[in-house]
Amino acid sequence: MKAVLDHVGIAVQDLDEALAFYRDALGLEVEAPEEVATEGVRAHVLPMGSSAIELLEATRPDSPIARFLARRGAGLHHITLRVDDIAAALEQLRARGARLIDAEARPGAGGALVAFVHPSAAHGVLVELKQPARPASALVPKRLSWGDVELVSVHDGLFGLDGGAMFGVVPRALWEAQAPPDERNRILLAMRPLVVDASWGRLIIDCGAGDKMPARQRDIYALDRRRHLDHALADVGLAAEAIDLVLPTHLHWDHFGGATTRRDGALEPRFRRARYLVRAAEWHDATHTHDRNRASYLPDDFLPLQEAGVVDYFEEDRVVRPNVRVVRTGGHTGQHQIVLIESKGRTAAFVADLIPTTAHIRDAWVMGYDLFPMETLAFKQRFIREAIEGEYLIFFEHDPLVAAGYIRERDGRRYVDAVL
Q1: What is the C-alpha separation between 19 and 74, in angstroms, rounded?
Q2: What is the pTM of this model?
Q3: Domains of the chain listed by start with CATH number
């Protein structure tokens, strides 16, 4: 069993006094609180590199935290150790005669599994074991009715990119608490296309990486193909042949590699019945690369489509189908675009690499991959304010755990209220 410190839990009588010390005096950042109703507790997390401090506030008088405060007063409540396999960890502790409060793991905050070890086994300290939510379990296709259309969040598996590149100028001490890197500094990411199912047909926004990448590149990018887009479509009763229109946000390999496939040694369109609708200036950039963007645009992903005569081009922001509108953001690429699905007064937004994960809702958290980062920043600032005020449902293409949610703001701090 390998265990690392996840966080230290501190029970507080007066949250304002605690924040006056930890936030104001020490200058620590406080995330939006998370309430665990079953435990009668509200948790305020202060990230500290790869671990955190968790201030625990009782929300009802009969909660465990309230009883702890009545008995012992404010102070250290528990330490939490993060483990990869909580069932194996509990079995190891049982074999060594350690007294357990929880014989089996149970659901905890953020989709994690947790179990408590009795203080008598740990020299007077309550120890919580935590197995974080497994990303693979979050890659579950889900349908959502959205006015006159249905939105189907699917996926094309997992991959990894360098954490520093994903967060640009943000120091690792800040981002690693949100996205822990592996031994090669890669953070885990998902590829989550979105199907719009409507009376006029089926449109898929982006289509993942596909299966053409050579072994060396698959290793570099930790490309996990155990579950991919074909599986996800089948899970919701669809197949590639059911797609009428493919709409890329841009032509990078992790968004459009799945547009083509190799059959009998030849490259051809993956979605045989579909037209591919591409912004003309993005096609130009993809076919006229330079040293800065060449590794992201792979000709085998898109040139076979032109040869097959299935590409339609457009120039400006427009409504591409009823309820579906594209808006150029620039920034990540010169012609990067987001897709808005608007129906019956509600707006959903597929934001692609403008806000690739939930961690990127902070203005300055802009990817190092972006060709024009100040353009990303300017559009993102305007869009997030609009999304908060307009209650937009945001689809996060690369987040390994959250497919979609609402961006909220409390006391000047943003957080995501997850829906899918």
Answers
A1: 14
A2: 0.76
A3: 3-131 (3.10.180.10), 135-418 (3.60.15.10)
